[in-house]
Design a protein that fits this description.
This protein is α/β, with parallel strands linked by helices and 218 residues long. 23% of the residues lie in helices and 30% in strands. The protein folds into two domains: 57 residues, no CATH class; 109 residues, no CATH class. Helix 2 runs parallel beside helix 4.
């Protein structure tokens, strides 16, 4: 079988929406630091969202400090997740207060989060998912909700910001075997911030799966 250029060179692989969003964020940060003018920022953002491959994204940020030499190519192989279990509460409400769901908890297939003049945090990196598809309904009224999703999850954000912000930057395709997370809702005079982050216990899980004892901090 003849090997295609995309097989031999990762730069020929197709970029996802989340890849383009990450590069756009680098450009916005550079503009905020005074490294790019507004006209140049607009031109480069247009090039980002027109790019189809990793190779087309790379030169757009190559002259910026701390920029990746190329967008990170998604790693192959199944993600390490556990599914099943009995979920706890299917909702979290904060009125002039706050709530937090993080650590090792079981995420229900449908979870409702509401803040009114308050704040909430939902961290899914160490969670077990009751089912492979989870929907989070997030509503922030004059408040905020921060949602952290695993970096290799399949994420779809469809919320609306009304005199507020509902961030869609985490939207993107995940690795095989990872959960699918739908996030929708409303930010009214408030904000719902969705970010991808590396799983805190990913290295520890890999060591346990290989039969090695976790390394102790030096």
């Amino acid at each position: 079988m003849t090997q295609s250029p995309a097989d031999s060179d990762p730069k020929g692989l197709r970029a996802s929406d989340s890849d383009r969003d990450r590069i756009a964020e680098i450009l916005r940060d550079a503009a905020g630091e005074g490294r790019l003018g507004m006209d140049e920022l607009d031109d480069r953002l247009s090039a980002v969202y027109a790019a189809k491959t990793y190779g087309e994204l790379e030169p757009i940020v190559k002259d910026l400090p701390n920029a990746p030499s190329a967008p990170a190519v998604p790693a192959a192989g199944p993600a390490n997740y556990q599914f099943g279990g009995t979920p706890g509460s299917a909702s979290a409400i904060a009125v002039m207060g706050g709530f937090c769901r993080k650590g090792e908890w079981v995420v229900p297939p449908s979870f409702t989060a509401l803040t009114i003049m308050g704040g909430g945090e939902i961290d899914l990196r160490e969670a077990r998912f009751a089912e492979r598809v989870t929907t989070i309904h997030a509503t922030a009224i004059m408040g905020g909700i921060a949602i952290v999703v695993p970096e290799d999850a399949d994420v779809r954000v469809n919320g609306i910001g009304l005199m507020g912000a509902f961030e869609h930057g985490a939207t993107g395709v995940g690795k095989p075997g990872a959960p699918t997370i739908h996030i929708n809702g409303l930010a009214f005079w408030g904000a719902v911030d969705v970010k991808r982050k590396r799983q805190k216990n990913k290295a520890k899980r890999a060591q346990l799966d290989s039969g090695k004892a976790p390394e102790l901090p030096s």
